[in-house]
Design goal:
This protein has 339 residues and is α/β, with parallel strands linked by helices. It is built from 11 helices and 13 strands. The structure holds flavin mononucleotide.
Length: 339
């Protein structure tokens, strides 16, 4: 049997050696609260590169200080951040991984001192701050911050940029009618709610020619919220704008209950892939090789993203190859122990 999981995948001239992607995961490990890369990030991300992950997407990285989820988040709002990312990218690439970064703004889910901003002045829940409604000047500044972040990511040598449009953070807050109650051109119709993301994608593309992913929450789990069907329209627009792949997650724009089970979000990836004829990544409780292989062979996604399983097992690609009965290249230092 030839495993699709271990077949290469090329996007805009960037070839991933397999279909295994490390999903972005916040490490909250920048203790000086300045957004800089630390030793922890070197160890953590490089371990997965040694483990033969095809594409490693560095955690949600804030494009402005106010856009951090926590004070310990990584940041890319300053030229001084570039050097740390350059070193990190170099380490990951030394082991054959391709590298991505998730550019993010937390919107109303920022847990920070001072003002936080969102499309509308509605708190996520009673424990969180009420954000300030963004002015059009705030929106323009935020779009510019995503552009600057992308420019710095390019300078750092990343292969892929992923825009964080999921999990109830700023872009998701604009997309969903549950969190966007604006009456200007950024609220109301789907086209208006999409406007911020449209502007961010366009701005990023003025400085970035490489593969561009967008992570979305394809279901709000609320009767007045968005579903994967709504995201087909957004995905068609993203495709027209030149986005290469939609990384399909779900939820967290409001505090709704989510029923989780193995592969619980794969169906949304399939809906968007078929509905918009765009490449997708599936994520969410994907833990076994056979499950990943099924998703790929049945064309329910083009890439599989793993988060927590890669925390438990940084060498998951090796584990998966054994499960599927295929052999994959080992780091040469580990050849004697790889089989
Ligand atoms: C520790 C941790 C941090 C996370 N941080 C991010 C993040 O920075 N950006 C993001 O889009 N998702 C984040 N997620 C969500 C994961 O990327 C993933 O979508 C989710 O955990 C489901 O996949 P899994 O079942 O393989 O863990 C995080 C998850 C975990 C466990």
């Amino acid at each position: 049997m030839t495993a699709k999981l271990f077949s290469p995948y090329t996007i805009k001239g960037v070839t991933l050696k397999n279909r295994i992607v490390m999903a972005p995961m916040c490490m909250y490990s920048s203790p000086n609260e300045d957004g800089h890369v630390q030793n922890w990030h070197h160890t953590h991300y490089t371990s997965r590169a040694v483990g033969q992950v095809g594409l490693i997407i560095v955690e949600a990285t804030a494009v402005t200080p106010q856009g951090r989820i926590s004070p310990q988040d990584l940041g890319i709002w300053n030229d001084e951040h570039v050097k740390g990312f350059q070193e990190l990218v170099g380490l990951m690439k030394e082991h054959g991984a391709k590298t991505g970064i998730q550019l993010a703004h937390a919107g109303r889910k920022a847990v920070l001192e001072g003002d936080i901003i969102a499309p509308s002045a509605i708190a996520f829940n009673e424990k969180m701050k009420t954000p300030k409604e963004m002015t059009t000047a705030d929106i323009a500044e935020t779009v510019e911050a995503f552009k600057k972040g992308a420019e710095r990511a390019a300078r750092a040598g990343f292969d892929v940029i992923e825009i964080h449009g999921a999990h109830g953070y700023l872009i998701n807050e604009f997309l969903s009618p549950l969190s966007n109650k604006r009456s200007d051109e950024y609220g109301g119709s789907a086209e208006n709610r999409y406007r911020l993301l449209r502007e961010v994608i366009d701005a990023v593309q003025t400085v970035w020619i490489g593969p561009l992913f967008v992570r979305v929450s394809a279901h709000d789990y609320h009767e007045e919220g968005l579903t994967a069907e709504d995201y087909i329209t957004f995905a068609q627009w993203m495709k027209e704008q030149g986005v290469d792949l939609i990384d399909v997650s779900s939820g967290a724009v409001i505090p709704a209950h989510i029923h989780v089970y193995p592969g619980y979000q794969v169906k949304y990836s399939e809906t968007i892939k078929n509905g918009a004829e765009i490449s997708t990544g599936a994520v969410g409780l994907i833990t076994s090789a056979i499950q990943a292989e099924e998703i790929l062979q049945n064309e329910r996604a083009d890439l599989v993203f793993l988060a927590r399983e890669l925390l438990r097992d940084p060498y998951w690609p090796r584990t998966a190859a054994k499960e599927l009965g295929v052999s994959i290249e080992a780091p040469k230092q580990y050849e004697r122990g790889w089989i």
